[in-house]
Structure formats: structure tokens, C-alpha cells
Design brief:
Helices cover about 40% and strands about 20% of the residues. The protein is of the alpha/beta class and about 325 residues long. The protein is globular and about 60 Å long.
Length: about 325
Amino acid sequence: MPLSRRSFLAGALATTAGVLAGCAGTVVQAGDLSRLRLMAPASPGGGWDTTARVFQRVVQTSGLARNVQVFNVEGAGGTIGLGQLARETDDALLMMMGLVMVGAVDTNDSATRLADVTPIARLIGETELIVAPADAPYSDIAGFVEAWAADPAGTPIAGGSAGGTDQILAGLLAQAAGIDPGQVNYIAYSGGGESLAALLGNQVAAGISGTADYGEQVRTGDLVGLAVSTAERSDQVPDVPTLVESGFDVEVDNWRGLMARPGMSDQAREDLTALVVDVHDSDEWAEALETNGWSDLLLAGEEYGEFLVEEEQRVLAILREIGLVQ
């Protein structure tokens, strides 16, 4: 079936649609997509929550669904929400997730795996930015790596939660630079604001976070931009080179995507995928990408499922080298 708004609306009007209410909750069968629920498996204000709410706004303004609700399920790198999704019976539910959850499944020893739910589509990516304090003795990534290799334990690197995208990037860069990832002195902070304070206070040698967290300080000269993680330079910090062009074979997108409940019909999965593709193709979504500095990384259906399998293998390997999982 073509992934188009027509197929989505056909599903929404399908005669097989029905709602069964009971003490166990509402069961929404395939085709009932006149309304949509979006789970952000983290606290309000974070990346998953922000992306879910932008998606909500575009769905509503584009007329793709009349009633769109975003709700938060916090905890354990998103794996609490993942476990809840695996028990859901609602076909009109999407869960926002991303690279952080891939690592969190292993670091939190989650009983629910990504393979236990249904992949719908990868949506966007955010660029990771490696920075140093303004008065650091190095001004590029090569200089930082030289100092890092000489004393890994004495070169603290600030970033987000343990096992998340920032630490994964630190481990991959260590590998590429010939540094034992298990020797990386990574200091996990609860958010970009805390790690930014550590950098500005010269408490760490470098920091890793999204361009949204550090980009302004790089532009004003309060921090030095050493490298970005993506294949191409970021429009947010266009003067900062990529790791690849700096001689390190490392590429990381802090991507986000959508999953749905397990056991859904092919029709229900196609309807949800069609909705996501229609959102992606809208002018409102293109504007949101530019406004938020997001990369367009749409990958739908089986290709997204295959990507997830490869990503799980890559992340698990580096988490083992870092020593976060056995």
C-alpha cells in the first residue's frame, strides 16, 4: 500500500474500526486513527518530549488527526515507557524514542527489548558537539585527542546520562583514537545545563552534548567547538569541522524515531507509517526541522527495523568496551 495521506484516511474511515471499552482500558482496533496518542518516555522538556510535541502540532495543523494527545512516562532511559508500550492494545499509539533508548535497554537490563515492539519510522537527527573550555590548551579535536591519549584518567569529559548518546560518542572516539574506551573518564550530568556549568567553570577538559546545549556558547566564544559528530557540518556551528574531516572515522546522529505496540495488524502498521510519512512531507515539518536544527533522517518500515538491529549491535559493543554492560 502506498504511504500516503489517502491510505491513512482510508484506514481512519474503515468499516472495521471499533472501540472496545472495558475495565482493562480502551482497545482501539486497526483503522481507528481519527485520534492519536503520543508517548514521550521521559520528563517534559527533554528531546523526546519536544519532538513529540512538535509532531503533535504538525499532525493537528495538517488535519491528519483531529485529537492528538502527548503524555509522559518517565524513567530508566525510556525503558519504563518501552515496557508499557509492550503491554498496550491501542493501535493509535506511537512512542517517541531514539539512540539513548538503544543503550538504555542494556544498561538498565530491561526485560522489554526493542524487538518486542513494532518499528514505525526514524524521523530526525541532532548533531552532537564536542567542546572545550575557552582557555583550554587545545583549539581543535586533534589537540584534544593528543592530550587525552597522554592521560585518559586525568582528562574528564562531561556529558549526559550514563550510557547515552554522549558517552557512546566518547567511547567511539576513544576507539578511533586508539584509546582504551574503558579508561575514559566520563562524568555524567543530568542535563546540558549542568555540564555547561562544569565547562564554564573549568571543571572538565571537554564536553559532549547537542548543538542546542552548547552551540550558543561556541558562537559567542565562551566555549571552543572542537568537532561535530555528523557526516556534514551543522548549520548551528558552521565553522566547527566534523570528526571525519578531522581524521577520525566516527559518525553519530542522535536520532529519534517512533515505535508502536506489538502484535498489530499489517494494516494498522501501514496506517501509522503513512501518517508519519505525511507529517514528514508537510511544509510545517520542514519548518520545524529548520527551526530546531534537526536533520531529516526519515527511514520507514522494514528498513527502519533493520537499522535498529544494526544500531543495537553497534551500541552494545561500545557499551561493553566502556564497561557499562557485561
